[in-house]
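PROTEIN DESIGN WORKSHEET
SECTION A - STRUCTURE
LENGTH: 499
TOKENS:
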């Protein structure tokens, strides 16, 4: 006979779901309590930042046409690849001596507030494997690792916790939730909590403009009725010793309370931006190009990316800790350019330049930028392809090619289509980073490798973690061994980037 004092896991999950439905809570992501931490993290120094916004632009941005512009070499039929140094002119910015690629006038107008790191280097060559490079950028570890490595957002969430009790510490905006797609499932793994567990997974907001149904009660369920049901549930729970003594039951009750609190929380209030923000502000977060103007409309996100940034700003205003906004990655879409790199880069700049620069201006004008890190990142850079069909290079990548043997026979070959793990750029604004500053220098001709101050990814991570107050050798135990926030705890902050 089964012990009457035990609770079968399957029965508990089944009954818990029924209880949630009975009290009128809509299904969806729930945020667990922070009470199971053994002790609160105390930064060993005074942090320069309280929050972070990570603008994730996956696909591999051509750094030579954006953050590290080279000499413009216009298209000429029959030219060789090594002649192509840049497909756009460079433009001055509000920071003395810093130039960006043409088409980034908006970001150029706020560059006096930012830092460009031009020499993020990597000894591992990822070839055409975007997901491996993206996983590395998000976790600092190259798969397979042996354990599930946590992402940046989950590390910040676990270490620093919530800034506001009813705002999840890690919020992710812009990625569709699709459990039927193998590639998206893999992406979700390296954006998630890894071995930290579901408590530190991101609160997913696929599309800011669509709102969040999970923050609403079932149709016809008033707030007062919902609260009465929840009070009844709490009374039943408190009078049942079997439930009170069950850690899983207690945790589930806390999750229900947190879910109810979020229905009236600043998270829900932040979604009211279309009614509360001015038309001028809403327009400023829109792309500067229409779908009909694109050569391929599948590369167009409309207001999804820009309004995601606007929502991120409103969440930071209300106390969010870490918000990641993605221009959603899709193979051969967005910045993943295997042909027509010149024309597609023009189109992509017109989709991201205005919204990103408006976010920086808004944060600065509201006095939030000083304590908020804004980081722009992609998984690797671009170089000249070594074959007409990028991604099918003999070696799988084009790291060491100078393009001298590649004849540019038609306009679609004009652009930077080769995958380039050897060098990448990052941008930082606010949160203790220097203003109007460039770090590192790359070669002026192919291959565009670092020639001054190359840096490792773990050192970059150590730098923004330091600004947040997290030591690079801070770690958590898994499988009876420590696992650090930077690779093997070896990250060294780049103090030259910090004010």
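SECTION B - SEQUENCE
RESIDUE ASSIGNMENT:
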């Amino acid at each position: 006979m089964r012990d009457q004092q035990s609770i079968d896991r399957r029965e508990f999950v089944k009954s818990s779901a029924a209880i949630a439905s009975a009290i009128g809570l809509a299904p969806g992501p729930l945020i667990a309590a922070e009470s199971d931490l053994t002790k609160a993290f105390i930064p060993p120094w005074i942090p320069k930042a309280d929050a972070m916004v990570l603008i994730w632009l996956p696909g591999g941005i051509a750094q030579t046409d954006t953050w590290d512009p080279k000499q413009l070499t216009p298209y000429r039929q029959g030219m060789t690849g090594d002649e192509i140094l840049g497909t756009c002119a460079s433009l001055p910015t509000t920071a003395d001596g810093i130039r960006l690629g043409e088409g980034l006038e908006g970001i150029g107008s706020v560059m006096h507030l930012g830092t460009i790191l031009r020499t993020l280097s990597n000894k591992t060559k990822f070839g055409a494997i975007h997901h491996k490079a993206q996983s590395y950028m998000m976790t600092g570890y190259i798969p397979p690792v042996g354990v599930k490595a946590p992402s940046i957002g989950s590390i910040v969430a676990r270490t620093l916790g919530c800034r506001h009790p009813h705002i999840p510490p890690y919020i992710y905006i812009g990625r569709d939730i699709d459990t039927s797609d193998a590639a998206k499932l893999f992406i979700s793994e390296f954006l998630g909590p890894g071995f930290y567990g579901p408590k530190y997974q991101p609160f997913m907001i696929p599309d800011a403009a669509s709102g969040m149904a999970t923050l609403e009660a079932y149709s016809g369920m008033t707030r007062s009725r919902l609260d009465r049901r929840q009070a009844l549930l709490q009374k039943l729970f408190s009078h049942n010793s079997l439930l009170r003594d069950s850690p899983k039951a207690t945790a589930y009750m806390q999750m229900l309370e947190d879910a109810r609190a979020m229905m009236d929380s600043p998270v829900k209030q932040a979604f009211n931006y279309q009614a509360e923000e001015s038309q001028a502000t809403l327009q400023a977060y829109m792309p500067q190009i229409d779908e009909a103007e694109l050569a391929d409309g599948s590369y167009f996100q409309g207001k999804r990316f820009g309004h995601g940034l606007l929502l991120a700003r409103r969440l930071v205003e209300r106390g969010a800790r870490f918000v990641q906004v993605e221009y959603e990655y899709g193979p051969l879409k967005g910045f993943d350019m295997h042909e027509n790199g010149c024309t597609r880069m023009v189109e992509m700049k017109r989709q991201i330049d205005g919204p990103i620069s408006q976010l920086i201006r808004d944060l600065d004008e509201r006095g939030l930028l000083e304590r908020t890190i804004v980081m722009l990142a992609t998984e690797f850079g671009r170089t000249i392809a070594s074959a007409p069909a990028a991604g099918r290079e003999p070696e799988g990548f084009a790291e060491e090619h100078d393009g001298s043997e590649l004849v540019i026979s038609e306009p679609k070959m004009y652009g930077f289509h080769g995958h380039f793990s050897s060098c990448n750029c990052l941008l930082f604004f606010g949160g203790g980073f220097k203003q109007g500053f460039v770090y590192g220098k790359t070669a002026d001709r192919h291959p565009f490798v670092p020639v001054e101050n190359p840096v490792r990814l773990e050192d970059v991570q150590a730098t923004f973690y330091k600004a947040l107050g997290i030591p690079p050798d801070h770690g958590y135990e898994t499988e009876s061994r420590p696992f650090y926030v930077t690779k093997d705890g070896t990250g060294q902050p780049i103090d030259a980037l910090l004010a």
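SECTION C - NOTES
The domain at 35-214+276-497 is CATH 3.40.720.10 (Alkaline Phosphatase, subunit A).
The radius of gyration is 24 Å.
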